[in-house]
Amino acid sequence: MIDRAGLAEFLRRRRQALQPEDVGLPRGQRRRTSGLRREEVAALCHMSTDYYARLERERGPHPSPQMVASIAQGLHLSLDERDHLFRLVGHQPPPRGALSDHVSPGLLRILDRLTDTPAEIVTELGETLRQTPLGVALTGDATRYTGPARSLGYRWFTDPASRALYAPEDHERLSRVYASQLRQVVTLRGPGSRAARLADVALAHSEELRRLWDAHEVGHRHPPEETKRFVHPDVGALELHCQTLLDPQQSHLLLVYTAVPGSESYEKLQLLSVIGAHAPA
User: Fold this and answer.
1) pTM
2) pLDDT at residue 100 is higher than 80
3) Which domains does the chain have, with CATH numbers?
């Protein structure tokens, strides 16, 4: 059963505890609200202001698990707070760890501050959970995929168009990296895991992956700081350094792409920030 009074109080307290700068929003000069406004939280949670306001007023429909997850992420809740929110609504909390799509508040705070940098948060299976605006401009909206296609590794072996964004001379190496990484995650998580199911589906659709899988290569991975070569449809070739930050509790990775100041790639990134998001077909 939903605890409407407890839910409303919890939402109000968490909203009032958040400041605009905590979630990457400008404070403005005439702010009187303690914490965030309801409309700001609603936007962060990808819902209407009316829907969110009714929850704080102990009214409205019974939120679905998907809606609760969106609220938890929008309010930058910790895992304990997320689980508490699910129980207030009357739902069983989702699993933690590698199966969780809930991004930790710490990673979100870092991502929210990377306003002029391409960056993304991905799972151990290469599923993009969050992107900065310039990250969307660089690679397209990678959060729009569903099912196995959420994984870049799966798309790499099953959708030839996914390779167009990367320099052709790197394709062979990247194929070995994605195959090796998938095998290692399958071994780590075991038979019957989501990683194992993803591998089964990908192997059924890709002869190239089957060939690499049979080679049983492990240890091929992206180094902590490497140069990635992109071929963007609007600005052309870019060479970007990729730094990786790991959240060990959730097995999430924050990938940050930077260019050497004064380089041609740096200038192209500046142009890309003006052009805006490009959504590949």
Assistant:
1) 0.84
2) yes
3) 4-94 (1.10.260.40), 105-275 (3.30.450.180)
Kindly state the DSSP code that residue 105 receives in the 8-state scheme.
H
Is residue 178 within 8 A of residue 155, CB to CB? The reply is: no
Report the SS3 class of residue 40.
helix
Which H/E stretch holds residue 47? none
Question: How many Å apart are CA 108 and CA 15, to the nearest integer?
Answer: 16
Give bridge partners of residue 227 from the DSSP assignment. Answer: 241
Q: Where are the alpha helices (DSSP H) in the chain?
A: 4-17, 38-44, 49-56, 65-74, 79-89, 105-112, 133-139, 152-158, 171-189, 194-205, 207-215, 264-275
Q: What is the number of alpha carbons within 13 Å of residue 231 lying toward its C-beta?
A: 11
Question: 79-89 and 4-17 are packed helices; what angle lies between their axes, rounded to 10 degrees?
Answer: 150
Q: In what order do the strands lie in the sheet with 119-122?
A: 128-131, 119-122, 252-258, 236-247, 225-232
Q: What is the end-to-end Cα distance of the chain in Å, rounded?
A: 44
From residue 56, give the alpha-carbon distance in Å to each of 12, 51, 61, 214: 6, 9, 12, 55
Residues 6+ apart with CB under 8 A from 34: 16
Q: How far is CA 14 from CA 18, 45, 72, 271, in A?
A: 7, 13, 10, 38
Give 95's DSSP letter: P
Contact 186, 193 (CB under 8 A): yes
CB distance 238 to 134 below 8 Å: no
Which pLDDT does position 221 carry in this prediction?
64
In this prediction, residue 24 carries a pLDDT of: 81
